[in-house]
Amino acid sequence: MPKNENLFSSWAAWRRRTASRLLHLGWRRLQEAGAITAERPGLLRFGRIGPGTRLAFPQGTVFGEPWIHLGDHCVIGEQVTLTVGMWPGLDLGPDPVLRLGNGVVLGRGSHVVASQPVVFGDDVFCGPYVYVTSDNHSYEDPDQPIGRQWPRSAPVEIGSGSWLGAGAVILPGASLGRNVVVAAGAVVRGEVPDHVVVAGAPARIVRRWDPESGWHPPLRTLSPVPVTELSSPDVAIPPPR
User: Fold this and answer.
1) Whole-angstrom distance, CA of residue 76 vs CA of residue 192
2) How does pLDDT run across 152-177, given as a tens digit for each residue?
3) Which of 73, 137, 195, 216 is catalytic?
4) pLDDT, mean over the chain
5) Which among 10, 129, 165, 230 could disulfide-bond with 109, CB atoms 3.0 to 4.6 Å apart, if both were Cys?
6) Closest listed residue to residue 68, CA positions, set 49, 86, 43, 94
7) DSSP SS3 for 87
8) How far is the C-alpha of 69 from the C-alpha of 94, rounded, in Å?
């Protein structure tokens, strides 16, 4: 290949690398500037947004924020929808409708839709694309489109310390106890007691904790060792292979 073609190829490759780096750098700065915090609420006026809480940019649909109370140190992923009321601009009274406790994590693309009270306890962790709603479609009238019939609504409560796997759906009227594990893709309705694992559609209890005898059925693997313990000076971490 002639020398001038080598120079042209190298120059074109350098331009592509530089453009890619600038694009990613610009996007990171845009994400930082567009994130919502208590100090930088942007155009959103939440009823409360606690210290250390952050809504990643870009946000999903958000309205009814005066009736949304976000606890301390919550992490709200990209494209998360938080809506209160059937549509924007409604007066929903003096009390909050959607409340997130401290340390709640909502994974990317999750939706929380509330017209009745929806309450997350502290340290509830949600994987991506979780859907929590106080409203469900009704279909009593066979002559009307289902989407035009007024929905059925009921409060929702998710107990502290629970984990909602990717794609889980929490339906109106659901009440989850403490430290409940909801398997990925599960559809939950009704009451769920403390310290159980639920899976399926509709979700059913597949494992429960007994204070005297432990988990039933027993766990198939040993409890993982926390990284903080592995990294202590008395423990040698094997080198990567």
Assistant:
1) 25
2) 999 999 999 999 999 999 999 999 99
3) 137
4) 90
5) 129
6) 49
7) coil
8) 12
Number of domains observed in the structure of the chain:
2
What is the helix (H) or strand (E) element at residue 219, kind and residue range? none
Domain containing 23 equals 1-34
Which residue do the tokens 């120079």 mark? 7
Tell whether 181 and 74 lie within a shared domain: yes
Peptide bond into 217 cis (omega under 30): yes
Q: How deeply is 100 buried, as exposed, middle or buried, from its count of CB atoms within 10 A (0-12, 13-18, 19+)?
A: buried
Do both 12 and 50 map to the same domain? no
Length of the chain equals 241
Sorted by sequence, the CB contacts under 8 Å of residue 41 that are 6+ apart come out as 49
Q: 168 and 188 in contact (C-beta within 8 Å)?
A: yes
For residue 6, pLDDT over 80 is answered with: no
How far apart (Å, rounded) are the C-alpha atoms in residues 48 and 64? 12
Q: Is 69 a catalytic residue?
A: no
- Asked if 25 and 128 sit in the same domain, the reply is no
